Amino acid sequence: MSDIRFTEDHEWIGMDGDIATVGITDYAQQQLGDVVYVELPEAGRKVTKGGDAAIVESVKAASEVYAPVDGEVTEANAALSGNPALVNSAPMGEGWFFKIRVSDKKQVAALMTEAAYKTFIAGLK
Amino acid sequence: MDRSQGRAARPGAGATTEPGGASHRGLQLEEPLLFEQDSPGRSGVDFPAAPTAADRLGGLRRKSGVGLPGLSEPQVIRHFTRLSQKNYAIDAGLYPLGSCTMKHNPRLNEKLARLPGFAELHPLQPMSTVQGALALMDELARWLKTLTGMPAVALSPAAGAHGELCGLVAIRAALEDRGESRKRVLVPESAHGTNPATAAACGFSVESIPADARGRVDLGALRAMLGPDVAALMLTNPNTCGLFENEVVEIAKAVHDAGAFFYCDGANFNAIVGRVRPADFGIDAMHINLHKTFSTPHGGGGPGSGPVVLSAALAAFAPLPYVVHGPDGFRLVEMAEGTAKSFGRLKGFHGQMGMFVRALAYMMSHGRDGLHQAAGDAVLNANYLLARLKGHLTPAFEGPCMHEALFDDRFLKDTGVSTLDFAKAMIDYGYHPMTMYFPLVVHGALLMEPTESENRDSLDRFIAAMRELAARARAGDAAFFHEAPALAPRRRLDETRAARQPVLRWRPPTARRVAE
Known about the structure:
The complex is a heterodimer.
Chain A: E1 4-6, E2 11-16, E3 19-24, H1 26-32, E4 35-39, E5 46-47, E6 52-58, E7 62-66, E8 71-76, H2 79-82, H3 86-89, E9 98-102, H4 105-109, H5 114-122
Antiparallel strand pairs in A: 1-2, 2-3, 3-9, 4-6, 5-8, 6-7, 8-9
Chain B: E1 16-17, E2 23-24, H1 73-86, H2 107-113, H3 116-119, H4 131-148, E3 152-154, H5 160-178, E4 184-188, H6 194-201, E5 205-209, H7 219-225, E6 230-236, H8 248-257, E7 261-266, E8 285-288, H9 290-293, E9 308-310, H10 312-315, E10 322-326, E11 329-333, H11 353-389, E12 394-395, E13 405-408, H12 419-428, E14 435-436, E15 446-448, H13 456-474, H14 478-483, H15 495-500, H16 509-515
Helix pairs in contact in B: 2-11, 4-11, 5-6, 11-13
């Protein structure tokens, strides 16, 4: 994973060949508070950019996680079902949500860079 | 035996601790579960020994006990009395849960609901013996139709969300009747969670309409989302931000121009009853929470009741049964007849009869002018809170509100105190917290609904407590908030652990070992 991109809905996406790993950002997990449950998509499911892909539930609220780009889910992070706290402790690492085979890499390139995302969340505070 | 069952057992200051780990505070007594008080063989009644007789159960005869605890009558009475004393209720004090409308339940309602002619009816009695009850349902229906301006009403839905289901199933039936298959339902992002859940349960896909800067539906965005595949809009008015959707007539027109139906969530009807007729908004269906607007007990005090008013376009699809009046008096229509295309039954019988009696008692004792005043007083009280807390807490939106005052958590910025901490501290100040973190569109929301039940003294005491708490947060006393509640029988609960490892069912110690 060399280049990580970000969405305005606080998902991150990291490319590795044709496969991308998707999770929620550190800012998102801070806003949510303690995560208590994560519902993940099944492998093989087609997702579309901006469409529902997963659900994350914290002590405060349940929120949808959107697919940052079009693609097909190849794997969901099984570790989250037994230990949703990983989303809080390592949102950009072990707390990843799912992997997708990306249909169009140009969609990834169009997302925010880390610097752009940092500016974006600074504007939210 | 682990008596805590996953509950925190930290005794508060000044509490005494029993050897079993239970703690008492003053005369607020700790209460173990009935199963934990089990003394095998103990009973409030002496039963004769079971006769030994041949049975025909074959291999189906029960081989183990039923597992009921052995208890004496005083144990049982004390158990439920102690539990009831731990319950907070509108009968005990101000209950400012926004969107829940915890208003006083007049005792006149209770007196009438206990009349034997209503209370002792059986739903399968012959029609000729229940004419009074049917007349009451007919009269209640007349009031609901008059107050909303709508031509039809279904009384049977058992609560608000059940009413939503009734409305959306009627809409689906009407669409099927037209030969249309519309699949999308539009819901504002501030909606009650039951709205998208109901739409999804009916097989629709749900899309969220953004709010504008005024906390209302963005009409332009709604227009852009409408199309030939939209089945319905679900909109609460006044909305969950406590604001009147003042473009509701244009909204209804846009929805109807697209061939869709307008479902109105009537959860907040209490703010406008007697003043505005939802029919004049242009709605097609709306549930009315009798347990909110018409003061029937709820929140653990009684079942809800959610009659649904329907437009002429939907009336034919209304659920069974319904009351009609003929030459032989009133009767319940149990099977579809004539031109009606009823979608069928929602419930075994006809609805929550006890709540019908209470709601009609409330309507008739208040009269049209009284309902008009109740709505006005509810709005006045909420605006009094908003006006006197402005400058101490941060209102989420500009301008006057309807029946509830909504604040965000900007006033807690950089204090280290969250909305949750603030709510917990209210308990130590003698107040049940308001609704928090809802609606989701407002950051760290605090939603307060005082209702018309509170007088000015009561509101002033509440306002003083809120101001003092806000000042305490700003003064840097975060530790107090993080520890709160210090005075409740249970201190701060571990909500994360409760959600991650919920203990939902008591198991006998042996079974628990086997299960683990």
